[in-house]
Amino acid sequence: MAESSNKTWRHRRNVTRPRKAKKQTLPAISESESLRGGRNWIDLPDDVTASILSQLSMFDILERAQKVCLTWRRICKDPMTWRAIHMEFHIHLRQQKIEGNFTSGKRNKHLRKFHNFNVHKMCHHAIDLSCGNLVDISIRNCGTDELLEHMTDSSRGIRRLSIVFSAYITMKGLSKVASKLPMLEDLAISYTPRISKSFGVLHSCEYLEVIGRSCPLLKSLKLNMHPGGMFNSIDNDDAFAIARTMHGLKNLQLFGNWMNHQGLHAILVGCPHLESLDLRQCTHLYLNSKGWGWRAIREGCSSHLQDLTTRRFEQITKLWLPDDSVHDYEHLAIDKIENRQYEEYNKDIMI
Length: 351
Known about the structure:
The protein is an alpha/beta fold. It is 43% helix and 10% strand.
């Protein structure tokens, strides 16, 4: 018995267990070797490559794509690549990994100005690369009056301009360049405290009249602000300025505007071609789908104007009322942290 157990033990001792395989590191593969076995992105037609690169942001093209190879660099230098420029400040902040939230301290204020300058420098370069072919520009969380002036001096064929969360762009600067935007068809101004009535800051609406007179081809206008509820006083100045000078509008979004029924009536009379009207969060308008509130618009009007107002509403194919859902509102996608950072950022520069 003991003898058999010893044999078993010896047998177990002689069994060689399989060793763990060592991790093998693959040799580095050069760009040319990788292209042989896979898809050769460099040999794509230039128009296809340009279409792919157009999906990238300005930062990605200037800092990454044009450094991949000579072919991509040549395409990135093509003026047609820069027909549309989308510049954003918060992308640069995240790339630099600035720690902590924004505060009102001098250090963070200087950091913001430093990174803002870097983005402006890049945008100046992108505008120069367009060689006057720029037709679409979006400015978000950055931008200055000087940048607007450089942009309009370089390109007179701009058709779309979007300004969002841009604390350094003023209505004076926008009024100054309005005469250089004769081809403008689409204008969006959202949450820009020195232009629109954002964060409870009141401004003159003269810049809207200047834009309306200088941009006869304007078809779409977005003038959005933070909804102020019933605590903000009624203000129809924006509505009256739009009605007086922007008769060719087809699409109008006035998210969170402070106008009442008088302002809305002026828009309906002054903008006869409206097809889309967004009145969400306009808390001084008492309107709903059942018709409650429409009577207030027509009070004090002659029978001719009452019929005209009714016809104008009937021709609007897309209508959002003040209490309609905001789930598809584009700027709600901004997270709470970024929004809080901007509000503190705005406090610093408004002092």
